[in-house]
Design brief:
single chain, alpha+beta, Four Helix Bundle (Hemerythrin (Met), subunit A), about 60% helix
Length: about 650
């Protein structure tokens, strides 16, 4: 009965979408306040119904209701509780239900803030959001029903894909969806602005907090997925330019550009056309990612290789929303007034430079991902575009971004002095040179690793130069400096922390050049030299798990004869899936990691072992945490958090407000 309630709740949510698609939109165009007023409560009700539906599916997994096809195909009665819960979204149908739940969540959050916005803009944005939500609800109901019953339930389920039975994968998809789907709100605001012709600095203030929220979760979601691949897949790396990885990277690049572009629009009422276009493209890339992952056109270890019918449906959604929004954009673009004027050497100019490089990087990833698919579709030829292409094209584009980050923060608005900004960075540049020389002496080759590490030090230290200048502007009295530091806007601190986090990640990436890799056959008692350490295989044991049989290797790490850590890499065999997975043994030492994987166990009892020493590798993910924290600190700034305009009174109702296009 609970399963049927969940299914019925989805149908009711779709019915409300039909109402919201038309009512508030028509009300905003005809100035009918009664129709506009239904937008917020209907959005909240949509979220509650879809949350009820999601809870019903979760209940089916928790009680192992094998009369539900989705539960049969992705669960097992002996599966640990955390994986019963994560199994809800560890499949196509459940993940699409999570997708529509996240869409409804953002619509409800905007509805709760609607009183701080003009009625017509809020109503139109929520109506557009319902168009997106309704399209995906229809997709779920027609092609991906998670509540489908089977006539003769089996006694046991097939279990969840073993690769997904991992804490990282229990957390990664919800975080990633909050980023992916969160960009739908920026899309809805962009469509509403184009419909009403109201594209100005006030619009940028509405959009920037939502873009920042999506960017924060997309950052940490991608990072979590990277770490999962690093320790679960056993490839010894953290990023492989897999097409599914690229599908998440492209919206992140577009959202990063949108954040900086919206800042220029908010401060100087400039870059209107570009900012609106980025708001459309960011969510469009999220839709493209959904299509690539679920259409079956990609073969990836972490894609949903679904049938082509579903892919065609998502392709129609993608064409409708991207094509419709770009057509609306083309109709309105000529009516937009030119905004504030600024010199090329200015903070605005630096942000435009940042945007150009970010969007070029995004285009590079897009071409590298889609070109093999297009070539195969047209000629039948199959080619592989992998790390060599992306490293040679993507990497050089990001170097000038990192170099410009500290300089851009020190330039004045409208007209800046690049020489003066560089002089203020003299200490930071000197520090970066010293760091580079020290690393060259201690670590030596490769030269690129040293150069990138020095660049990272420059970015980290340079991120706080502006704050230091403002704190010490009135002298070096400790009490006065503290008061000035506390009095600085939180957005300034957030920007510095996020930029420094990018530098920390860059240092971790640079340090991979100093890593050591060994491949060896080992029996108990054998030793392998690994960089500064010696790894000993002490024992190999087989032990049962809840729904698998595990072969675990017990290893000891020594440095100079002293034990500094122990590891237990393992191989797990899942009988119900007839599938074996590896789980890396990780030991963090001084921000680096010893990473050991067992790809194979031989008939004579020996193990084929891959051993890695990766100095400073943890900085890759620590940096992403700093970026997330920086975004959160910026979001806490009252000027950004309360960036929504007050709702106009009846005296200055929306009809009386001139639009940006007028």
């Amino acid at each position: 009965m609970i399963v049927e309630v969940g299914h019925y709740a989805l149908v009711l949510a779709f019915a409300l979408c039909l109402v919201q698609m038309v009512g508030p939109m028509w009300g905003s165009l005809t100035r009918d306040r009664a129709l506009m007023a239904i937008a917020a409560p209907v959005s909240i009700m949509q979220f509650l119904l879809i949350a009820l539906s999601f809870a019903a599916l979760t209940y089916a997994y928790l009680v192992s209701d094998f009369s539900v096809l989705n539960v049969v195909e992705n669960s097992h009665s002996q599966k640990p509780l955390i994986y019963k819960i994560s199994g809800v979204w560890g499949n196509h149908e459940g993940s699409m239900l999570l997708w529509v739940l996240t869409l409804a969540l953002f619509g409800a959050l905007v509805a709760l803030r609607a009183k701080r916005m003009p009625e017509d803009m809020a109503a139109t944005a929520l109506s557009v959001q319902s168009w997106v939500l309704g399209a995906f609800l229809l997709f779920v109901l027609l092609t991906s029903n998670p509540f489908a019953r089977i006539a003769s339930p089996p006694m046991e389920g097939r279990d969840l894909n073993p690769l997904l039975q991992d804490p990282g994968l229990a957390i990664h998809p919800p975080l990633l969806y909050l980023g992916y789907v969160g960009l739908s709100i920026t899309f809805s605001f962009a469509a509403a602005a184009l419909i009403h012709g109201r594209i100005d600095a006030q619009w940028a203030r509405w959009v920037r907090p939502w873009t920042l929220i999506a960017w924060m979760f997309l950052t940490v979601g991608i990072s979590m997925g990277s770490y999962w691949a690093y320790y679960t897949l056993g490839w010894g790396g953290f990023w492989f330019w897999d097409p599914v990885e690229n599908a998440s990277l492209m919206p992140w690049l577009a959202a990063t550009a949108l954040l900086h572009s919206a800042l220029v629009m908010e401060k100087r009422d400039a870059l209107k056309v570009w900012t609106i276009l980025l708001a459309i493209l960011a969510f469009s890339l999220s839709l493209l990612g959904a299509f690539l992952v679920r259409s079956g056109v990609l073969t990836s270890v972490h894609s949903f290789a679904s049938d082509p019918q579903r892919g065609v449906f998502i392709l129609l959604i993608l064409v409708f929303f991207i094509g419709g929004s770009l057509a609306l954009f083309a109709l309105r673009v000529q009516s937009l007034k030119q905004g504030g004027i600024f010199a090329p050497i200015s903070r605005e100019g630096a942000l435009v430079f940042n945007n150009l490089l970010l969007t070029t990087s995004c285009a590079t990833v897009l071409v590298g991902t889609l070109y093999p698919l297009a070539l195969e579709a047209v000629t039948g030829d199959k080619i592989s575009v992998g790390p060599p292409f992306f490293n040679l094209t993507f990497g050089p584009l990001f170097v000038p971004i990192f170099m410009a980050m500290p300089i851009g923060q020190l330039l004045a608005w409208k007209r800046g002095d690049v020489l003066g900004a560089t002089q203020r960075l003299a200490f930071v540049i000197g520090l970066a040179v010293i760091v580079g020389l020290m690393l060259a002496w201690v670590r030596g080759e490769p030269v690129l690793a040293v150069l990138f590490a020095a660049l990272a030090a420059y970015v980290i230290a340079g991120s706080f130069v502006e704050i230091w200048s403002r704190v010490t502007a009135a002298g070096y009295d400790i009490g006065l400096m503290w008061r000035r530091a506390v009095g600085l806007p939180l957005s300034s601190w957030g920007t510095a922390i996020a930029h420094a986090g990018a530098g920390v990640t860059l240092f971790g990436l640079a340090a991979t050049g100093w890593g050591v890799e060994r491949i060896a056959g080992m029996k108990p008692g054998d030793n392998v030299d690994l960089g500064p350490y010696v790894v000993t295989l002490d024992d190999v044991q087989r032990r049962p798990g809840p729904n698998y049989i595990e072969t675990a290797a017990f290893m000891t790490i020594r440095e100079g004869g002293v034990v500094v850590g122990r590891l237990e890499p393992s191989r797990k065999f899942y009988a119900h899936r007839s599938m074996t997975t590896t789980e890396a043994g990780l030991r963090t030492i001084d921000l680096g990691q010893v990473h050991i994987v067992i790809p194979e166990q031989n008939s004579d009892g020996s193990l084929d072992v891959r051993l890695y020493w990766k100095p400073y590798v943890t900085l890759i993910w620590i940096g992403s945490i700093f970026m997330f924290i920086g975004g959160g600190v910026s979001l806490a700034d009252r000027r950004l958090r309360v960036g929504f305009a007050r709702r106009p009174s009846r005296k200055d109702a929306p009809a009386a407000q001139p639009s940006a296009a007028e």
